[in-house]
TrEMBL record:
<dbReference type="GO" id="GO:0008168">
    <property type="term" value="F:methyltransferase activity"/>
</dbReference>
<keyword id="KW-0489">Methyltransferase</keyword>
<dbReference type="InterPro" id="IPR029063">
    <property type="entry name" value="SAM-dependent_MTases_sf"/>
</dbReference>
<keyword id="KW-0808">Transferase</keyword>
<feature type="domain" description="Methyltransferase">
    <location>
        <begin position="57"/>
        <end position="149"/>
    </location>
</feature>
<dbReference type="GO" id="GO:0032259">
    <property type="term" value="P:methylation"/>
</dbReference>
<protein>
    <submittedName>
        <fullName>Class I SAM-dependent methyltransferase</fullName>
    </submittedName>
</protein>
<dbReference type="Pfam" id="PF13649">
    <property type="entry name" value="Methyltransf_25"/>
</dbReference>
<dbReference type="InterPro" id="IPR041698">
    <property type="entry name" value="Methyltransf_25"/>
</dbReference>
Length: 218
């Protein structure tokens, strides 16, 4: 991974990431929650799940649970994880009952209930903020909690012609985002043991560059 040297250690970076996301949600600056590109990524993932309902879906970095709510409306069950306990969660728990489980935890620290395996995982904008030394732990956590052949959607930042260099870009409060090329995203997820299925390029409503939705399987 390029430019690892600029990174603080894992534990300090985790603190910075938490501070950054708490700040954005508390101040209503979580523009991604209303980004039509992110909503589109969730719809593409939902369509790729196919017609079978009542699938067990994990939403990694669930945020305000926009995507989780859409999956429940489509007939699925969702577990959502996030490092920030969102103010919308109490009402969402009341609304969706046992169709939605919300847990405040980093994905790479979380132990799923014994025997629970997911049919699909969506990571809509979370992986590309993880410390590079945690990429392996983060992606193995996904592999370990999914059934063989499960569909995994990872929606990450992608470079565009205005700034085609892949690598880390500094965001607010020391939060970093990794911007991939199309080839780089495939190489990365294959390197970590996933089977490649498809790539969908999605326009980003807010901010520079594009989203690259990688669809892979365990
Ligand atoms: C850009 S936001 C996207 C939120 C949501 N998926 C959406 O589309 O609106 C990324 C989310 O991931 C959460 N997050 C960051 N690192 C995480 C981790 N290691 N495990 C779980 N959640 C994490 C953040 O708190 C934030 O809510």
């Amino acid at each position: 991974m390029s430019k690892q040297a600029q990174f603080m250690d894992v534990s300090t970076y985790r603190g910075a990431l938490n501070t950054s996301f708490v700040h954005r949600y508390t101040h209503g600056e979580d523009e991604w929650s209303w980004d039509i590109g992110m909503a589109k990524a969730a719809r593409v993932f939902l369509a790729a799940l196919g017609p079978v309902t009542n699938q067990n879906i994990l939403d990694a970095g669930v945020g305000r649970a926009r995507d989780a709510s859409e999956f429940i409306l489509a007939g699925h069950r969702v577990t959502g994880l996030d490092i920030v306990e969102n103010s919308s969660w109490p009402l969402l728990r009341k609304r969706w009952g046992d169709r939605l489980t919300l847990v405040c935890s980093a994905l790479q620290d979380w132990q799923p209930p014994a025997g629970e395996l997911f049919d699909g995982v969506l990571d809509n904008g979370c992986f590309h903020h993880q410390h590079p030394d945690e990429w392996e732990a983060y992606l193995s956590a996904i592999r370990q909690c999914t059934r063989p052949g499960a569909l995994i959607g990872l929606n990450v930042f992608g470079v565009d012609a205005s700034n085609p260099a892949p690598g880390w870009r500094e965001m607010d409060n020391q939060r970093q985002g990794y911007f991939f090329t199309e080839q780089g995203v495939r190489e990365t997820f294959e390197h970590f043991g996933f089977t490649w299925q498809d790539l969908v390029v999605i326009e980003r409503q807010h901010g520079e560059a594009v989203y690259l939705l990688a669809l892979v399987r365990t």
